[in-house]
Amino acid sequence: MFPLDGNGGYRVDRYYLDFDWQAPRTPFEATTTIRATSTQALSRFNLDFAGNTLHTVTVNGSKAGASREGDELTVTPKSPLHAGRSFTVKVTYTADPAQTRHRDDAIEDYGWIPTPDGTVVYPQPNGARLIFPANDHPSLRAPITFRITTPKDRTAVANGKLVSRTSAPGDRVRWTYDSEQPLSTQLVQLAVGDFRLVDSEGPGGLPLRDVVPSALVEPTAEYRGLTPGHLKWLEEKLGPYPFNRYGILVGDTDLGVALETQTLSLVPKADLLGTKVDAERNMVHELAHQWFGDSVALESWSDLWVSEGHARFYERLYSEAHGGDSFEAAMRAAYAAHDQWRKDFGAPAEPTEPNLFKRMRYDGSALVLYALRERVGEETFQRIERAWVSGFKGSTAGTQDFIDLASKVAGEDLEGFLRPWLYGSKTPPMPGHPDWVVNPVT
Ligand SMILES: [Zn+2]
Question: In this entry, which stretches build a coiled coil (predicted)?
């Protein structure tokens, strides 16, 4: 899947994004500076980049060769880089905050998504390259410093912490954010709009900061106020929330998709203006991703079932306990459809590029976790979950890591149990539910 995503020969140590944002849907001048370390001798190297107009590329201050083919930007430094050296790449370009791509699955549109008074971004799965030149692969994480200038009547936000807000030439404002923890490019958030920053506190004094279009502060207040309860519920299941802060960015768009951008989940306004049950499902889903997919990053896109399966699992578990549908009934329905989903969308851990974000990765993958819980029992399952989020906190892990860890914690080899669930063409029997039936494939 996505064989050209990510690049070898170097490691990104930090991105610095300097954006001179102007107005909705209006291209603006941007500079991305990348501090990196070569892991081998390099006469040239690649970045993933799909921004619309490239101006110049320098390496260590000297003009470098730059050529583009598809989403690959090949950089040829004036003199080759030795192995193990830190170096600085500076790319200047024009960013187009209306540049969007489309997928025919749960992602729908991605890249820059315009709003009436600004922009939000949906980088998942590989749209970060529309925003900045990057090592755009879910396993490759680096911290990011965001420096965004805006007109005075706009607010810019990004992952992590607001470091400063100062005046800039031309009656503008400069916003500086630090992601604090490294993040995968698919989890970047960077939004500009007529926002109010609404601060509150979660369990243990965790700083919460919602970012809300001014006109939506009151209408969304009730559901946004549920976040501390969601945190408390998930922390009881999983242990401490993995980052320094959290918040909800209310998306003023018609794109009905939520996204787990790190420390600042993007939730479309429709989700916060509908029923409480649906709002909480989406909010708990994105919050659960902060543990699964954000703090513990994906090793590859084939591991997406781990993050989406867990997010859906906890979303449904929470919902059942708070007025929503029966978890078991939903899992029974997913079980019935599982052979069909295997045929249409691939087994949970065997997606292909076009079916990556289809139903198998959501309820179909929550079902694998449900089967595991039925097999090992609730107490052991909870120990597996806690071992996963604490053992791989701030790092990357894949499907084999999950199988190995589950086996270790359960004290039995679960390879023979989990592999058919994750890779087989036929759905295995559901432990504890001999009466559950898989519908024939059509
Ligand atoms: Zn999700």
Answer: none
237 C-alpha vs ligand 1 centroid, how far in Å?
18
Tokens standing for 442? 């059509």
Distance 361 CA to ligand 1 centre (A): 9
Question: Is 261 in contact with 224 (CB distance < 8 Å)?
Answer: no
Q: Could you tell me if 300 and 285 are in contact, meaning their C-beta atoms sit under 8 angstroms apart?
A: no
pLDDT tens digit string along 357-399?
A: 999 999 999 999 999 999 999 999 999 999 999 999 999 999 9
Both tokens of residue 134?
Answer: 């990057």
Architecture of the 297-423 domain: Orthogonal Bundle (1.10)
3-state secondary structure at position 82: coil
Measured in angstroms, how far is the CA atom of residue 260 from the centroid of ligand 1?
7
pLDDT in tens, 7-56: 999 999 999 999 999 999 999 999 999 999 999 999 999 999 999 899 99
299, pLDDT greater than 90? yes
Backbone φ and ψ of 396, nearest 5°: -115, 150
Q: Is 283 helix (H, G, I), strand (E, B) or coil?
A: helix
1-193 and 297-423 in the same fold: no
Q: How far is the CA of 323 from the centre of ligand 1 (A)?
A: 21
Pick the CATH number of 1-193 from 2.60.40.1730, 3.40.50.20, 3.40.1190.10, 3.60.70.12: 2.60.40.1730
Dist. CA 288 → ligand 1 center (Å): 9
| CATH class of this structure's domain 195-291 | alpha beta
User: How many CB atoms sit inside 10 A of residue 316's CB?
Assistant: 26
Distance CA 34, CA 13 (A): 8
| Contact by Cβ (8 Å): 8, 44 | no
Judged on CB neighbours under 10 Å (0-12, 13-18, 19+), 279 is buried
Name the amino acid, one letter, at 115.
Answer: T
Domain boundaries, the chain: 1-193, 195-291, 297-423
- CA 294 to centroid of ligand 1, rounded, Å: 11
Burial call 207-224: b when 16+ CB within 10 Å, e when fewer: ebbbbbbeebeeebeebb
